[in-house]
Amino acid sequence: MKVQHGFTLIELLIALALGLIVTAAAVLMFITGQKSYVLQQGMANLQDNSTFGLNYITDEIRNSNLNTINSIVNDETMFGGVVFTSAVNARKVAASGVVPEQIFSNLYPSLTGANTAVAFLTAGELNTSNVKCADNVPDNGCTSGELKSDQLLMQYRPQYVTDDKGTAATADDMWFGGYDCEGNKIEFLKTEPAKRIVVQRYFLREDSDKGSEPNSSLALACDAGWYWEPYKTNASVEIKPTAISDFGGQGEIIMKRVDHFRVLFEIQTGNSYQYISVKNYQALANPKPRILSIQLGILGRSVQSVGNDSVFKSDQKFKVLDQTVVVKTPTSNASTKYVRQVVSQTIALRNTFGERGK
């Protein structure tokens, strides 16, 4: 009689249990690895987007106050620096006797086009954002409820060089001053009567190229334009600029997926230095103190979601320069979470430091 060999029921159950344990461990390792990969991808994407975007802005802002006569940057600096005022909201001193009316403005007083309105100038808490103030946090100018982003407008006179177009003729010679923040080439014929002043506006706007977004699909954009410097004709007639050309549109996106944009100015009052918001700077008495540097802060978001990982809290607080904020409740995909990070940059303005009166 042959003896039949095989597994007993107990042995089979033990083998199945061990197999399930090994399989569960392998699945857990796979899920953990996948989550770690998604998180690292999200962080890498966020850091690349934020770092490269802010570096680009930094290089552009360092052009402000380039080739200007005065070293002081405030709300009266003309042809350079931060632009707070135009003829619309300039500080004016009424005429008296033979002295004509004085207009203290960043933009030349004759610039009165629609795109010099206050809505296009540097302003605090003007544009939309995806954040609100954190409750019970006594931040500067921050209260409960929706919080808006800042807007920054700069102007500068480029460093022009001659582009002879590779020909011996001079009729086609051009002035070349680099590229503006939208990627447009700054060039014009040398036969033109004056050179151009470039203006650039940084602000948050809706991004039309969007996917499954938790809130508004906001991006940091830059809109660039230019105007002629005032000049005199051969008959000594002064020709003044009247409008900013190629300005007032949606601009080009510099940085996608930005939930909040904050701007602070470093100012000097006596022997002390402090950072102040756009809104508080504009509320200071005239003449306003000079601005030495600009501090930018953005709250960026990753393109990839991280599912509904409990590590990421929907009420997580973020410190964006002087403000503590939380992201607004998502209007869609509320259970989907994203990696967010605050990135800041301090930019010293050209020729503004030092004890100089001009």
Describe the structure.
The chain is of the alpha+beta class. The protein has one domain. Helices cover 16% and strands 36% of the residues. The chain is built from two helices and 19 strands. The chain has helices at residues 9-61, 278-282; strands at 81-82, 91-93, 102-104, 123-133, 145-156, 161-163, 174-179, 185-189, 196-206, 218-228, 231-232, 238-239, 252-256, 258-269, 272-277, 291-305, 317-320, 323-327, 338-348. Strands 1, 4, 5, 9, 10, 13, 17 and 18 form an eight-stranded antiparallel β-sheet that branches. A four-stranded antiparallel β-sheet has the order 15-14-16-19. It has a three-stranded antiparallel β-sheet with strand order 6-7-8, with no helix packed on it. A hairpin with a 5-residue loop joins strand 11 (231-232) and strand 12. The mean pLDDT is 84.
Tag the structure with descriptive keywords.
single chain, 358 residues, alpha+beta, four-stranded antiparallel beta sheet, 2 helices, elongated
C-alpha-based Rg, rounded: 28 Å
* Portion in strands: 35-45%
Order of helices and strands: HEEEEEEEEEEEEEEEHEEEE
- Percent helix range: 10-25%
Number of domains: 1
Number of strands: 19
Described by strand count, sense and barrel closure, the largest sheet is: 8 strands, antiparallel
- Provide the structure class: alpha+beta
Terminal residue distance: 114 Å
Shape: elongated
Count of helical stretches: 2
* Rounded average pLDDT: 84
Taking pLDDT < 50 over at least 5 consecutive residues as the criterion, the unreliable ranges are none
